[in-house]
Amino acid sequence: MRKGEHHNFYYLVQICFDGAGLVLTFFLAMCFGKQAALASADLADGLFLLYLLIGWYFASIRYSLYPPVLHHTLLKDLFACFNVIVVQVLLCILFSFTFKEQLYGRSFVFIYALGLFVLMPMSKIGVRKFFYYYYGKGRFLKRVVVVGDGVSGKRFYHFILQNPLYGYEMVKYIPGSMIVRGHRQAMAKLQTMASGLSSLGRIDEVFVTEAGNASYDTREIINILSAYAVQVRLIPKVASYANGQLQVTMLGSFPLISMVQEPLEDVFNQFLKRGFDLLFSTLVLVFVCSWLLPLIAFLIKLESKGPVFFMQERWGKRNKPFKCYKFRSMYTDLGDSDEKGTFRQARKGDRRITKIGRFLRKTNLDEFPQFFNVFRGEMSVVGPRPHATLMNLEALHAINKYLVRHQCKPGITGWAQVNGLRGESDNPEKLEERVAYDVWYIQHWTFWLDMKIIFLTFWKMLVGDKNAY
Questions:
Q1: Tens digits of per-residue pLDDT, 144-173?
Q2: CA angle 438-439-440, nearest 5°?
Q3: Which neighbouring-strand residues pair with 254?
Q4: Which of 268, 296, 297, 304 has the fewest CB atoms in 10 Å of its CB?
Q5: Among the three residues 245, 261, 277, which one is the final residue of a domain in this structure?
Q6: 2 in any annotated domain
């Protein structure tokens, strides 16, 4: 759980039930699936259970099983739960067959997996129904008053009404129109309202939405309300244009507001992605490139004069330039720009492309030297495709949010490419669409999204891609 996230009573109960369900399932598997002759290994049991609990914790973070923004549908809750259970079963198999196969055999793994797939969804459904029932009866609810202007205030008011699982009961909405900055009558009315909160019954919290047009003094309102036995919370006006992606964290005593949530800014995610890049690139370089590169190099030299590899300056993360490696697929006497200095992308039927080069580009084999870039840390296996410097300079001022795609490392393959946006971007609309896919990838990155992109890339290599030329 990141610092700054808010989880309510509903998720506290859900976590407790899930933890109890996991421990219960483990002991059921112990009773019915553990080898009887070795049933006295208590230390191993404790370490195994701790290992599984830690695995559940990290997997629940990865798949947002207990997110700060509640899932509106039970289906999303169950889908997140299913993903975490799959990881849990894989961890169980890994431990069992790597360290203690003679102690925790196939029966143990089967019973543990079956128990999780039965108990955990039942826990999700049961806890949700329990809270809907008791919140509907008015129990366990925090009674709240909202004070604010007609935009943010009403948005928050309707949000509370439409999301009962947050555990709030709306008692009163006080529009900001009655609170005018410097207007003594309005402030006196607010003072009277504050002192009269007791007439509304128990009030647990008062939410004050910051004025968008400075029509009232938020600080004065908070000062008045703070004198009474209620919790006062401020909704800043920045929330009105956060588009649901605003993330608040703390740096010491200073609150930091991120306007766009980027999963790859998280250190754990960076470590996971980099670890996979190192492993994947090493395997490809050792087991594929070791024999494929000499073969392709021979074919390239056989057809045309020039170097085997083509090196071009491209932009990486944070616009840092680097030398990107590719197999040369064009004749050396034809450049990347025309007589006016405009960058020329490769296009269908391009006379600059050699015969072997056309095959390499069609099958993506020309990109394999970029695994050296991945190994060196300049690129990733998956990410926005890097463009040549000339193309970047031309698109910089023409395409909205173009540089956002450089918020992460470029990739050998990407989300845009597997969605048919490969090849020449011969008009601004096509390039804008490609950038939109790249930005979506950066903001919605998951490890399993990378796996999906890699699978689709290999699939397109097998079946062919009409945009590859």
A1: 888 877 667 778 888 888 877 777 888 878
A2: 90
A3: 251
A4: 268
A5: 261
A6: no
